[in-house]
Specification:
heterodimer; A: 315 residues; four-stranded antiparallel beta sheet; B: 183 residues; 8 helices; 0% strand
Chain lengths: 315, 183
Amino acid sequence: MTSQEQLDQKIGRWLEAEAPTQMPDRVLLATFERTRRSRQHRRWPTLLGRIQVNPTVAPVAAVAVVVVAIFGLALYVNQPGVGGRPPTSTLAASPSAASPSAEPSPSATAAPTGTAPAILRQPYDGLPLGWSSDGTRLLIQKDDGNLFVLHADGSETQVTEQLSALKDIRGSGRPVGATISPDGSRVVFAGLTEGWEGHSCHFGALFAVDADGGPAEVLWRSQPPHNGILRYPTFSPDGTQIAFVDDYCDSSHNVWVMNADGSEAHKIVSNALGVGHVYALRWSAAGDRLALSSDLGSQTFAPDGSDFRGPSPRP
Amino acid sequence: MRRDLVEAARRGDHEAFEVLATSVGDRLYAVARLVLRSSDLAEDAVQEALVRAWQQLPSLRDPDRFDAWLYRLVVNACADQGRQLRRWSLEVGPLVVERSFRDDTESIADRDQLERAFTRLKPEQRAVIVLHHHIGFSAAEIARILGIPEGTARSRLHYATEAMRAALQADARQAPVAEKGTA
């Protein structure tokens, strides 16, 4: 056997030994949750060459397009302010408003807490992460991982742009959890930073960014060896605090709370909630409890970590 | 039957896609984990690859190429993960050590040497090593999977293997020197 063949065999045996035998179920669960919300990219007919047009469907589709275009034009002409009619809703009067509705629905005005303006009931692609308390802004994460704020007037603001918006923060990756402040002015998200040499974890940070866009700033950095990756930041209902989870290399987790400006971060539930990932962290509407969901089960506790209920964390 | 599942998934049948994804998930995860050397990153890479697979399935011309196409998606996702966390660079130091010592054919010293040699490779070199030595694809098949010329695949595989050989030999030469230093 040649030395090349010996090396090839050595590499093959080593890879075989190193390769995991099974992928954690959570990967498929998370994947299917995203793909169920995601549309497939269909090929559209073009004017050049490679066309996939069903000869039966194409004429019908063409007629449909024309009908929709005429309908849309009619709606536009009849909009308040366009056809000479005065605006009749708060949102339609806004300079940035572009409501497609000729007659604003009652919910298009400043909505009571929890009621979405009609404009936000249209479909969108992404994972919803939270509303502002007046229901006029919705934070979502699209399939490319970036965060967007959807506004009541139908516009959207891209809040993150992967690395390009965070060039000065090395290595930040796809946000793992994000939250919008109750007043809708700020977004805080968790991201990865540089690798932690010699360990399988990475450093992480919480980043804050204006919900109308702009540069992100680091709010709080993980502090190895106390924690590594940070996840699922969530604003308290009064907007004064942020709770979040940290993630050790060994799948143990702690829950932290800090002031909304990143100060006075402290651990409230400590030491190894046990096995696997954390999936969600939420404040109660009254702000008097937090709920956490993990592979171990669901737990609730007071914001100071007391009155813990649910499967017990390991000591 | 697999072709039928792919055809159904291409038409938007999510259940068919779930069956396909479940059948290939472990293999994709093994590739990603070997390339990225991190469970967290590998999980993210596989998830991204499968989401893209769902989204881009209608553009897959040949359903029989589904598995090979998935390997390309996961390799690209690994590349994206690597770019997000550190620049593709020869200066990248040894990464994580998430190991599973299931086989004691190699000595501990050999495994350490292979680990160090492997992590010194660029991630795109690691990918061809894994596709060739672990999955068993030829250079021609790797070229088709990655969408690169066959000559490029051959040279990348050659240089990756040679880089591992050089690293192994360098480690072997260093060991006697270290012993002298501690004497």
